[in-house]
Amino acid sequence: MTAAALWWSSWLTSFAAMAALCAQAPTMRSRMAWPKHSDSQRAAIATSAVALLALSFAAAWRADSAAFASVLWLCELGAAGLLLIIALPYKPTWVMNAAFISAASGIVLFAIGMEGQ
Amino acid sequence: MTDLHDNQPGSLRQAMDYLHSWAGVIFGALLFLVFFMGTLSVFDAEIDSWMMPSTRVAPNDAASFDRHARVQLEQIAPGSRQWYALYPTDRQPTMRIGWRENGEFKTRHLDPATGALLPDVGTKGGTGFFFPFHFMFHIKWQDVGYWLLALVGTAMLALIVSGVIIHKRIFTDFFTFRPGKSAHRATLDLHAACAVLLLPFHFVITLSGLIIFMFIYFKPAVALIYGKEAPNATTEMFKQVTRAPAREPGQLASVDAMVAEARARWTAAGMPDSAVRNISIANPGDKHAIVQVLRRPHDMMSYETFTVYFDGSTGAWLGNQSLVPAAKVQRFFTGLHMIPFDHWWLRWLYFALGLASCVMIATGSILWVEKRRPKHERNGQRGYRFVNAIGAAGTVGVLLATLAMLVANKLLPLDLAHRATIEQSVFFAAWIGTFAHALWRGFAGRHVRDLRMPWREQAWASAALAVLAVILNGAMTGDHLLVTLARGDWAVAGTDLMLLFTALLAAMSARKLAPREVEHGAAQRMQESSA
């Protein structure tokens, strides 16, 4: 149960991290016709993306050993990124909402997983 | 991408573009084969269960070499120079015994609860067909299959490096996918996305694949250094315990007792949660028989089996396997590639990324043809149609042939002589048929200008075959989806569900590849817009 919560946390936060990286990219904002961000807003999104990436790796590490965590994390990022870019052109609002939900639930599951260990 | 007849490339990017294009077109079909079969091999045990209905037994922890495997081996192969027993796991619930007979290695499945011999499965299944296809193309002669894999793997590494260099805005376009733009742009975006996002996976899986077979690739060097004693190289690298047969009859001691001692030794070495992967016995009827007990690497990345060696006649401990550093590195990369450990999430991720790699290779093939089509048509050349045929047969054709084999698995009578060979022949016949079909569509008939036709028709055929395979599994075995789901038989249910998902994807792809005969002007504009 604890490991499952951490694995899910790792996956959800990796998806949220990739979405945040996408959202802070000026070219993507232009292509998706999203409102422009100020430099500080962009920095904040980029920082949250990095934090989510770190959380994703930490969750994978706590669920398994460091060796498994590295492999799992890289695979999750690749899969999450692909899922994001394929879904984004068709349902941008759904994808971004899903990213917010993933971030929130990923953090909660990480807390649950750490509590159980 | 640079055409063969253009001026010699000047800049590094032009040179890498040239390399990427031509390495891709030459090795694309073989690369797809390797990645597709490798992706299937992630779930080879589950495919075995689907293709071998007689092995759908309940998991059981009571498997015993002495009470089960030995009884059968003494009846089937009393004089064999090698006995082998693979213990059951959650993924492979039967006990599998093996022996050498007339230079061949033969296997049968046992019920793990009773030790009874299960009916001959009559198929090679996932572990016997798709997995070996992945790493040696079923070409055993003089290790040619392994060397071909080395060539393909090296080409893949060259494709990875050259692809990174030619991708002009690799970070800016990191998340770019524009399906609403032209088909060419969308295909290029998909190709780049699959390549860039999965770059670590591609690099590691390719490099580790080459490292796994380093003992084959280093044979010439080993022969140079060791000369006539070349077989000693492996013995030294893995610190194996070997000895020549005594040529005197001997009685095999209790192997279960040896297993118990091996487990105790692994526990003492700091590995308390140890299970046996397999037993291998050299010269079982000889006084100098050697029993190897291998640990299942279910809890670590490295594919190390911590083999314990025993004297077959007395049961005395002879030694433990001890790897030299180079062998440890090789075992680590082997584990990284083959995922022998218990980790369902990672296993599914490897499967998904493997499929995405197949998409990358297929889109690359399409891009090569679409790019050259306008110029070739202007010059009256038809080479692009041949490459298109190879691309279609080498990608969708492989899928179609695989599904045809699964359908044949359900239709061929179980008591048919040489059933496994006939089943494999269906695969190769279907594959050749897809190539013939693609050539026919490219060079004859009214639709030669519709390059998508062979892809589309083979995709529709694949969708139909995938659905048929699911229906036949239910009809011929009684284990249709509702039954297997209720029973919790996720191996068979999961395979059926993946087949249905495959049908859905194939049908969607076929619809996406709707008829579109490109006019010359439009093709020219396409080429200019992607420059």
What does this structure look like?
The complex is a heterodimer of chains A (117) and B (531). The model of chain A has no long low-confidence stretch (mean pLDDT 92). Helix content of chain A is 86%, strand content 0%. The longest helix of chain A has 25 residues. Chain A has 117 residues and is mostly helical. In chain A, helix 1 crosses helix 4 and helix 3 packs across helix 5. Chain B has 531 residues and is an alpha+beta fold. Helices cover 59% and strands 8% of the residues of chain B. In chain B, helix 1 crosses helix 5 and helix 13 crosses helix 19. The longest helix of chain B is centred in the last third of the chain and has 35 residues. Chain B is globular and about 80 Å long. Chain B starts with 11 loop residues before the first helix and ends with a helix. The N terminus of chain B is likely disordered. Chains A and B meet through helix 1, helix 2 and helix 4 of A and helix 6 and helix 13 of B.
Key traits:
heterodimer, A: 117 residues, mainly alpha, 5 helices, B: 531 residues, alpha+beta, 19 helices, 7 strands, disordered N terminus
